[in-house]
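Worked example 2:
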Amino acid sequence: MRTPVFELHIRPMFRATDKAHMGFAVDLWDYDDVVANADGILARLQSDMPPSETGGPWPEEWVTLFQRWKDGARKRLDLGTATFAFQQGSTRTTITATGTFPAAGVEGWLQLESETDTSKTYVLYFEAPDTPVGGTPQAFTLKESYLSTDTRSVFVHSSAGTQQLH
């Protein structure tokens, strides 16, 4: 069974209405806040959170997944390091990240993090294996593309911060 990961499994379960409802006490989309308040969040999920007027209670399998994450490694993704390139073609625009993973068995990808009418931001995520594996870290080339008719500014968020590519 796969180890639950905050950015992949836990954060998406917290709906915008949950975040707004609990904003006075905890930022449900912030890893450190959720870790610091995990016991209290679980207790509320098991009893009365979220109330019916703000979305209703989570399905039991969501509560169980949150508890498994809380009681386990509280795994999260790492921000990756890479060299980025931006290439605009006649029909497709491609963002390329190249580098070497920090350890053997690490996987990575570019993911659209946010977008507005004027910009879009991608994040470079690395996921370490649940148990370390032997071997040499592998080089990688990761690509994300979209239609060239999309002329918004493009940013990439990585371990080096956020940089504008276009």
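Strands lie at 78-79, 83-88, 92-100, 107-115, 119-127, 139-147, 153-158, 161-164. The chain has two domains: 6-71, 78-164.
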